[in-house]
Amino acid sequence: MATATEANAQGYNLQVDYVVQYSFGHLDQSQAIEQLEKLLQTLTEVGLQTEVRQGDESSLLVFVRASKKQLKRAVYRSRVRDWLYGIRNTEPEPADAIDLATETEADRLRVISHLITLPVQEGGAGITPQHGEWKNVTAVFPLHDEETNKRWMREWSQKTFLSEEELDQIRNKFGESVGFYFAFLQSYFRFLIFPAAFGFGCWFLLGGFSIVYTVVNSLWCIIFVEYWKRQEVDLSCRWQTKGVSAVQTRRRQFKPEKEIQDESTGETRGVFPATKRMQRQLLQIPFALLAATALGVIIATCFAIEIFISELYNGPFKTYLVFIPTILVSALVPTMSAVLVSIATKLNNYENHETSDAYDVALTQKVFVINFMTSYLPVFLTAFVYVPFASRIVPYLDVFHLTVRPFVSKEASTTKRSHFQIDPARLRNQVVYFTVTAQIVGFAMETIVPYIKQHAFREYKAFNKKRQNKTEHNGDKESPERVPAVVYDDPPEEAQFLKRVRNEVDLSEYEVTEDLREMCIQFGYLALFSPVWPLVPVSFFANNWIELRSDFFKICNEFRRPTPLRTDTIGPWLDTLGFLSWTGSITSAALVYMFSGNAQHGPNGEPTDIKGWALLLSIFFSEHIYLAVQHVVQIAMTKLEPPNARKERSERYLMRKRYFESTLSAQNDADQTEESPSESLGLSRKALEEDARQSSLHETDPAERFWMRQHGWAESAKVGAGIIQARPTSTGKKEQ
Amino acid sequence: MATATEANAQGYNLQVDYVVQYSFGHLDQSQAIEQLEKLLQTLTEVGLQTEVRQGDESSLLVFVRASKKQLKRAVYRSRVRDWLYGIRNTEPEPADAIDLATETEADRLRVISHLITLPVQEGGAGITPQHGEWKNVTAVFPLHDEETNKRWMREWSQKTFLSEEELDQIRNKFGESVGFYFAFLQSYFRFLIFPAAFGFGCWFLLGGFSIVYTVVNSLWCIIFVEYWKRQEVDLSCRWQTKGVSAVQTRRRQFKPEKEIQDESTGETRGVFPATKRMQRQLLQIPFALLAATALGVIIATCFAIEIFISELYNGPFKTYLVFIPTILVSALVPTMSAVLVSIATKLNNYENHETSDAYDVALTQKVFVINFMTSYLPVFLTAFVYVPFASRIVPYLDVFHLTVRPFVSKEASTTKRSHFQIDPARLRNQVVYFTVTAQIVGFAMETIVPYIKQHAFREYKAFNKKRQNKTEHNGDKESPERVPAVVYDDPPEEAQFLKRVRNEVDLSEYEVTEDLREMCIQFGYLALFSPVWPLVPVSFFANNWIELRSDFFKICNEFRRPTPLRTDTIGPWLDTLGFLSWTGSITSAALVYMFSGNAQHGPNGEPTDIKGWALLLSIFFSEHIYLAVQHVVQIAMTKLEPPNARKERSERYLMRKRYFESTLSAQNDADQTEESPSESLGLSRKALEEDARQSSLHETDPAERFWMRQHGWAESAKVGAGIIQARPTSTGKKEQ
Predict the structure, then answer these.
(1) Which of B226, B678, B706 to probe the A interface (max A CBs under 10 A)?
(2) Which residue ranges run through the membrane (chains A, B) (predicted)?
(3) Please, which residues bridge with residue A18 across strands?
(4) CA Rg, chain A, in Å?
(5) Contact B378/B295 with Cβ under 8 angstroms?
């Protein structure tokens, strides 16, 4: 923790907690100034100290720092809230007693961001960037801790795995949501060792489609997913975010249908009937169908064209034509996905979710359909359509002949088709492409390209500045065209710092869910298709070593520092993992059954030698065995309590114990005072006598008469003894 | 609630809360008396009033009543525990303030039973019947409330459904575990209306094996199971038992492997490693196999014999021989099950579970395997072995000929066999048997027979007494053979009451899980086989109307009144329901596919006209559609919050709100005192000046210099305004 305490935080960024970008470009001066004053005042009112500096041409940078006092108070408030929602076990000590040095930096930043963004009635300034009255507050973000980031990059490049402490550090800098991503990536990476080694062995000894590998692989998938579930619990206890989803903030975009008065809490709150939302959610079904068909058609068509050109067509320009499908795919698919995503977002807004969590979950689910199609459909087509049915389908590809009739000599094409036979290596090549090439390309696209673009952009800006300087020196100083913003009149010792800040402002915001999506899709290839080519895990293992570093690099250099968010899970992606590994149990069974015969020279299955019932039977068994095993593993996992969870539980227990004992002792003291310090026997006799007095009032009550027969246990004992003695034990024995 | 308040409880049973049966038959007098004194003293020490009466020949009845004071204290203690475990939302008021009249009778009895049974360190008397030092305490139980029971029986016999209040009453009398059973039975019964009506319609219009019915049926199963899950949440909120499973009592039979010192709680507790238990649990797999084979063999054999005799054999004595298989089944199956159950129990003990809940769950699972085999295997055999494959298998039944060779003339049998053809009605008849006949038989066996036996037993006892009286009158009064226990010297006004108590002592203990099992098995027939004969739900609907009453009758007259147990679920049976309805999605698909062709004249499927792939495909689809729909329904259910859950949540919320506001206001007061009542602006300026002073100490600190440039928001605003004014908005617009 030490690295992240406020004490060290002193070190960098001149103690700036948050930077607020205020753009006034589109306002006239008076408005702009007025707005600015409002902003500054609001910030000050919640106890934040402000400094204004020049941003770029049409914006200001408002630097914000929380005074210790206010911070303590805010921390206290958030702790109380946590305690009430059962996230903390211990009642927080009063504000003044809080030692800020023990707060992690992420917590500190989160609390301050709450100060800025929470609604006023919850003790915040209620500033919502780019929304409503604050729409000219264009960004609110903390500043990167450059030295630390650089140092970590250096350190990690030397080692294979991150230690638990390093994960804690990430969490302390960037908050739990990012922390969870890295923790997940890390355990996924570590788990990949086994299948990588095993896969390599299988590939070497058994080749593709080996049953052994398939079984082990899906078993591994089960264990990994269940292990991660357990890990989430462990981490959420370790990072004190267990059950944090209970504290949910309302979406600002939420449109309540009607205001209702909650009879018990007595306050009016806007509600939106769940049933109505469900009706709207039904639209997901047509949407899913739409997405599936739209993408399906595109991919299938391109696929067909590709087959046609590469394997049927032998007219002129073939060398060039073969690229057509690739071009088509890479042009059409992203466009279509973009369209679909925008539709999905519209749908999601229409569903009008109340909390942002619910919103994200719903959106993720919709987007996943699209991802699933784009990522896996091609392989599905090859494996379950092309390979088995090619010889039947291909003839129908004639249609394309019409298009190429002009170029191709009839007989040539026909002759070619007559002895057409499928390319056995196609399936494997495709899998290789998706699990190696695509990964590398992806890495380049998400990390390197943006980095270059970004630098180019900065160059351009700098260049611009120079040019403008020139014009300015030539032009008349007092002319209205003067562009003073260009010469930043920064105090020399701040210049460097402000330059960095201005750069960070230009960066875009980081979305952790993007990176999670990437990993889940990757896991999907492993679960669904790795039996085709057992080296898949090896490739992923290598890839993820880089992934972990490059993602961190990305966050540090290509995005603004994310505002810390608390979470206790990777959210909907967890279900996705489960779903994929389940589907895997089906696909791999099918793959193995269909192709295991001809592993070495790749599949060239013919529909004739595939028995429908046998295929389905193998699927049926593999799936149900999978589910059974999963069930067992789940139970086993629940039995093995993760260490931090145990710790957390025993804390709770201690808390209860302490309280319980205190109350009991208090009670006993009370006894001592109100009664003669007699042993409880006397006590009860006393109680009895009371009863006696009461009963004397209504002597007729049969119950009282019943209970008055014997006074105290001694008398009862005597009576009992009488009865016992009355019969010699010998007979007693007989009676048994 | 009113009917169950302590006030009314006054009315009956002479205010006896619990009866403790103390058997001294096997002890010699001195021991017996000593033990008795110990017992009475222990009871008195926890503040319970005692009265001793004569039991039967070799036992005493110790009547126990809790003094108001002690009761209040016990109630308070249990409430505090609940509160700490998050079962109650509100901190309980001090003991003296408790109004016992608001406590339900069940709660009252539960608290008192805790007083008697809880270990001493938890404030109980630590009396564990039939265990350790208390092994001659043979029973601890409350007494039935006869009038109320009778009244309810009368009332319910007139109406179809029990109202929510009546369920509450059951719960108030018998505790939540019984309450949950009746609530379940009730909602199951109510839910049966629809399939009963629909099934009747289908049976009338479409006959058996109609796809429509099958689809609707499994949809209904899904909805019912999910609805009940939701209902459980609702009830547990309504009855304030939500999360009650958190408070778990340790099993006394639990054998810890080693004592470990919990580093955080600091107390030593016996533990048993989960991994070791899991290894032991692996024995379940061989056990399941054993059970399956053992029962499978028996049932299959009898089945084969039956077919042989009824359809192949035509020698002499046929009329008598046909009963052989039935006799065999009803002789062997129960015996075998009994054996297996005992094995299961041994296994379960060997698994050495820590809490009694865990123990019950584990046992239930094991027993369910046995139940599954005995209940459903016969139908499975008919549906999926006999009908499709009879013509192939039957010839092999020749083996039996050897046994009957002496009687049967060869040619006769052969001729018969040659034109053998299966009995199409068999499947339906079997289903009818299991869903109608078996139900009625079951009802008789569990309710009527025991009732008769019980009365016979009492008659016998009375007769015995008379006989002994005679011998006594003849014999010498002072002789040691004198049998005084026979003439109960009860006070006349108590005689009637004591007679009843002595009867109740002789009754056995009630196990709610037995009744739950029965219902789940019944539900299984509905889910698995009802497509064969759509009238199944009708039969169950009728049956359950009786079931609900007869079960209540059973509890009241054939069992001791159960000690109230708290629970928030029907436990493992919930999973069983889910499992059965899932399996149903497979079986019904198979049934429909195989037999839908020949509905009217019953199935006579031949393996030839059943396509393996088509069968499997239909199963595959039906199962996955089922799972998808289930998923959707589950989500939908989670969205619709049950009313009581909402209430409970808003209570929690209120509690939090109150606390939160109090702390905040406290804080603000603190501010008022410690600072001049200036608006927060001044406050922050003050803070700034403090900072200033601090910084003056280390003026060199760049951060401080950065933050000292502008004092307060006003100055920042001025600077900002300067920058804004510096550039004419026109250019600002341009820059956009």
Answers:
(1) B706
(2) 178-198, 204-228, 287-309, 321-347, 368-389, 431-452
(3) A64
(4) 35
(5) no
Half-sphere exposure of B45 (CA within 13 A, CB side): 13
Backbone φ and ψ of A51, nearest 5°: -135, 135
Q: Which two tokens stand for residue A189?
A: 């990476």
Phi, psi of A49 (to 5 degrees): -90, 140
Q: For A387-443, how does the pLDDT look when each residue is reduced to its tens digit (9 = 90+)?
A: 777 777 777 776 666 666 655 555 444 444 445 566 777 888 889 999 998 889 888
Q: Quick check: A568 and A242 in contact, CB under 8 A?
A: yes
Q: CB pairs below 8 Å between A and B: how many?
A: 323
Higher pLDDT, A210 or A485: A210
List of residues 6+ apart from A433 with CB closer than 8 A: none
Distance from CA of B721 to the nearest CA of A (A): 5
Which of the residues in chain B have pLDDT under 50? 1-10, 411-418, 476-486, 599-602, 607, 674-683, 729-736
Interface touch B43/A713, C-beta < 8 Å: yes
Best of B716, B731, B733 to disrupt the A interface (most A CBs within 10 Å) is B716
Phi, psi (5° rounding) for residue B508? Answer: -95, 170
Q: Which residues from chain A sit within 8 angstroms of residue B28, using beta carbons?
A: 729
The pLDDT confidence band at residue A726, using thresholds 50, 70 and 90, is confident
Which strands sit side by side in the sheet containing B18-23, from one edge to the other? Answer: B48-54, B59-66, B18-23, B137-141
Contact: A687, B70; criterion CB under 8 Å: yes
Label residue A207 left, alpha or beta by phi (over 0 means left) and psi (-120 to 50 means alpha): left
Quote the CA–CA distance of A114 and A123 in Å, as a whole number.
Answer: 9
DSSP output for A168-197: HHHHHHH-HHHHHHHHHHHHHHHHHHHHHH
pLDDT at B344: 94
Q: Between B45, B60, B653, which is nearest A265 by CB?
A: B653
pLDDT at B606: 53
Mean pLDDT of the region A191-215: 90
CA angle A473, A475, A476 (to 5 degrees): 105
CA–CA dist B42, B124 (Å, integer): 9
Residue B611 with chain A: CB contacts under 8 Å: 613
Q: Which residues of B touch A654 (CB under 8 A)?
A: 264-265
Of A86, A640, A713, the CB nearest to B40: A713
Task: Give me the residues paired with residue B261 across strands.
Answer: B268
Taking an 8 Å cut-off on Cβ atoms, the answer to whether B611 and A613 are in contact is: yes
Q: So what's the pLDDT on residue B581?
A: 94
Q: What is the ipTM of this complex?
A: 0.84
The answer to whether A45 and A116 have CB atoms below 8 angstroms apart is no
Residue A478: per-residue pLDDT = 47
B171 to B5, B185, B360, B565, B569: CA distances (angstroms): 13, 14, 21, 10, 13
Minimal-distance CA residue of chain A relative to B64: A707
Q: Do B616 and A613 touch (CB under 8 A)?
A: yes
CB neighbourhood size of A544 (10 A): 20
Residue with tokens 């009786």: B546
Choose, out of B8, B13, B51, the residue to mutate when testing the contact with A (most A CBs < 10 Å): B51
Whole-angstrom Cα distance, residue B250 to residue B257? 15
Q: Please, is A179 exposed, middle or buried when counting C-beta atoms within 10 Å of its C-beta (0-12, 13-18, 19+)? A: buried
**Residues A471, B133: Cα–Cα separation, whole Å:** 103
Structure confidence by residue, pLDDT tens digits, A17-51 = 899 999 888 888 888 888 888 999 888 888 888 88
Please name the member of B43, B51, B86 whose beta carbon is closest to the beta carbon of A706. B51
A727 and B485 within 8 Å at the Cβ level: the answer is yes
A262:B712 CB<8 A:
no
